[in-house]
Amino acid sequence: MECGVGARLSAGPGSGLNDQPDNQGEGGAGRRFDAGLPPLGLYVHLPWCVRKCPYCDFNSHAAGDEIPEHAYVDALLADLDGDLEQIGCGRKVQTLFIGGGTPSLFSGEAIARLLQGIRNRVDLAGDTEITLEANPGTVDSARFAAYRDAGVNRLSIGVQSLSADHLQRLGRIHDPGQASAAVGTAREAGFENLNLDMMYALPAQSLSQAEDDLRRLIDLRPAHISYYQLTLEPNTAFAHAPPPLPDDDLAADIHEQGIALLQSAGYGHYEVSGHAGAGRRCRHNLNYWTFGDYLGIGAGAHGKLTDPVTGEVRRVAKQRQPRRYLHSAGSDTRVGSSRSLSDADLILEFALNALRLLDGVPTSLFTERTGLPAHRIAPALGAARDAGLLEPGEERLQASALGQRFLNDLLHHFDVEGQGS
Fold first, then answer.
1. How far is 390 from 397, CA to CA, in rounded Å?
2. Whether residue 17 has pLDDT greater than 50
3. How distant, in Å, are the alpha carbons of 71, 222, 266, 339 from that of 77?
4. Cβ-Cβ contacts under 8 Å for 396 (sequence gap 6 or more)
5. For residue 87, how many C-alpha atoms fall within 13 Å in the half-sphere facing its CB?
6. Eight-state DSSP code of residue 268
7. What's the pTM?
8. In the chain, what is the straight-line distance between the N-terminal and C-terminal CA atoms, in Å?
9. Neighbouring residues of 117: CB distance < 8 A, sequence distance ≥ 6
10. CA neighbours within 13 Å on the CB side: how many for 194?
11. Structure confidence by residue, pLDDT tens digits, 296-338
12. In 196-235, which residue ranges form alpha helices assigned H by DSSP?
């Protein structure tokens, strides 16, 4: 839904929780990024889809008669030019993710022109992971082959279910046969690094139906599976007219059943909803979870950038409406909002991301990615470990099995502002 750098700072003996001076400053004052800048990704948002799904709260818009492909690619590249003026040059892009909306509505020619324009502007790593999202109802063999020729090396296909009844209830435009055919077509085009999305706890879904759905997905043998619960998000059709969803106990049973099935099939559970074959974890998403930097171009796209000189970490969002975004191409008005993260923001947002990873992260990564001394989270770590929500051991920040189950309770310990301190 994937530009100086200083010498790496030794974490020192033990956890390093008390070996740096306090930093109470906001807006970047006093933060230190001695380990260098975080890795950089690039997210590209293509906002059009055939029709809006009733559960979707993403920035997506029904395409209508025609998508302004050429003008939108021009706007994306102008947007990227503007961002690069702000961050300067020299930062290599490690991952690139084209999401939506339904990016597979765009022609192979448009995606090729977009990717070539990006290559002309940024330094892509030699092994850059380039993902494109696709809908089974909007692809054919020629289009998949064109994406592969353009440089896309990973596809993420939104299957969501392999039950005709549940696909209809979800408002999807494809059927199970089209979903299975899309996987075969992708492989014929040369794609082996495939992610398939599937949702569970669907309207009126039973435990046995969820099991059958997931087994059928596993039989397709994708490299990666994103398995996540359907939730009712504000301002969606489902929120206004809720369907009969499984209760919390049944949803938990479906989840536990799914995890066991995926693990027995050889998919490692590495993130809340991420399950991967060997060597197939999504690198773009891992950059999010490890609090890396990323540029975001396109209508409604979000970015996060670190300035090692000022210590500022800034989040930027672009204009959401496609028409307004197109009209603002190349100007500062393409930016819809921009804010500098406070120390409290950094503490909570780092935890929100890092604790999604089942293996956690080194505790030292907190200082590397936030610029804050590690003792700033010592009280949170102590309280969470005392509550059994974190694994013991000071070298690693990792949710326990209990913490994974009650993640919101765990994250509350890192919500400095929410606790009024």
1. 7
2. no
3. 10, 32, 40, 23
4. 360, 361, 362, 363
5. 29
6. E
7. 0.91
8. 34
9. 73, 76, 77, 80
10. 26
11. 999 999 999 999 889 999 999 999 999 999 999 889 999 999 9
12. 207-219
